[in-house]
Amino acid sequence: MKVATWNINSIKLRIEPLLYLIKEFDIDVICLQETKVNDENFPKEIFEREGLFSSFSGEGGKNGVAIISKIQPKFERIGFLDGEEDTERRLIAIKINDYYFISVYVPLGGVKNSERYFYKLKFFDRLKRYFNRFYKKNENIFLCGDFNVALDEKDVYDPIELEGEVGFLKEERDKLKDLISWGFYDSFRLKYPDKKEFSWWDYRWDSYKKNKGMRLDYIFITDPLIDKLEDVFILKNFREIEKPSDHVPILIKLSSILWCTKSSINKNKVIEFNIGMNNIDIKRIFEYDNSFEDLITKEDKIRGFNFKKIKFRSSIESKYEENNYVYGYIFYPKNRFNGKNILAIHPVHEQYPAFEYSCVFYFTRLGYKVSYITLPFHRERAPKGTRSGELFLSNNDNEYFFAMRQSIVDLRHFIQFLKDNEDEKEIYGIGLSLGAILLNILMGVDNRIIKGVSLMGAGNILRLTWEGIYGLSSRIYYKKQGLSFESYKKELKNFINYVDMVKNRGEIIETYKLWYLVDPLTYSSFNNPRYVLFINGLFDFVITKRAVYELWERLGKPKLIWIPSTHYTIPIFFPYVLYLSKRFFENKI
Question: Which residue in 146, 217, 410, 540 is the catalytic one?
């Protein structure tokens, strides 16, 4: 079971990050505070569409609490129910099977000895009476929420500076400790007795950047739950999303609680995929076998150029035997080799690889080697009865993920061959169209590419699918599946949030969306500030300008050159593009 709490500071403003949080971390129950919406306007329909149940008590523009769950509660309990008027919506409880979940939002308290301050102290007294009236200490209880009090010195950035400030006054802390003494335990301190982490940072004074925060949010549990507690997480990265709450979610994971009827993914373990290939874990998506099984090499000549053809078995396999071999080509310079190899990446559909041969003709006469591979499901690798590339760009997430992943794995494997057998010291890359997309991923995961030219490329495949003309057929397919432009916009926000979290954490993180793992934006922070030259078409409606600028900005705004070309007239500009590429490789751009 996974239980979370979050002072969301307006559920309407942060509904998308909330849904992302629930899905991404497979949360069973989440308690919310400061929903800031009255009951009539609570977005329960949104949760219903996701198969979730919502219990809520709110008031427009301030306060408000809610609990979102995967299982329908047996009952709801709203407010203190102590005979006093609840003028503010700050307390709600639900029961699911034998488990109680309480979401509480303790008043901030104003300034010391003010009316709001005494209201806060009285709130704690009412809360303890509430538990005496309705609950027993041996029951399974989760008390979650924003308590607006830091318990001790480890829970604030500077106890001396905060001395005398509301939120850290001894009287408040004693009230909270008295409440805990009813029979609760601080889940975070059970796991991390001495760790200093915060859950709240003021919007002002660059508090988050300076880490001047406080731990004000807690999940307290009763004794029967202690042995089941596995871990506690303060999800600090949620303070770095666009328009963040000033609080971040707290998440706890418990074992041996099997009450949820929906299957859940254990996100604390490495995710494995099994889609017609070997199981892999998320940290090793693009790993390859260092050996070269069934290796065949053959030297030949074509149009006056000496070249070597290489064939070896791919490190990952599909159900199509034709696709399970990597075909690589190395063209040698006619004159003295200058020590540089150009790796050209392009999905060749025709028998004559025009882009690759253009690179060969231009660069080999200048002393470069030129290499390329046949991408999965293209040319020699196309299964019988299919056209070159027909099975590569699929509307099925699993199939698309496989083709993109195999491309990167095969490219990395081929680079290893160049290093081992050709003794290459300097490898440069040029990618065209889909090849440019692959190059930008490759440079994010493999530092053996010194420089790269992204020709008619971009990031964010989702945007290209929904906004570029090449994605028209896919859009028609998705709309038949019930998807709309509005659902695209929501998914786009989810993806950008994921990319931001990867950047902030500095590593690839688990996601239930396979295609996130094969998009250049995901790896852009690892490719920055690597050397990349962008060359794009002013009249390209396949690779949209928004998608170009999106990747360009995340790569640190490298050199970007616009040429007066559409996507399909780019061959006219090959001589100029290759000239620019040479100058870039020679540090003249």
Answer: 146
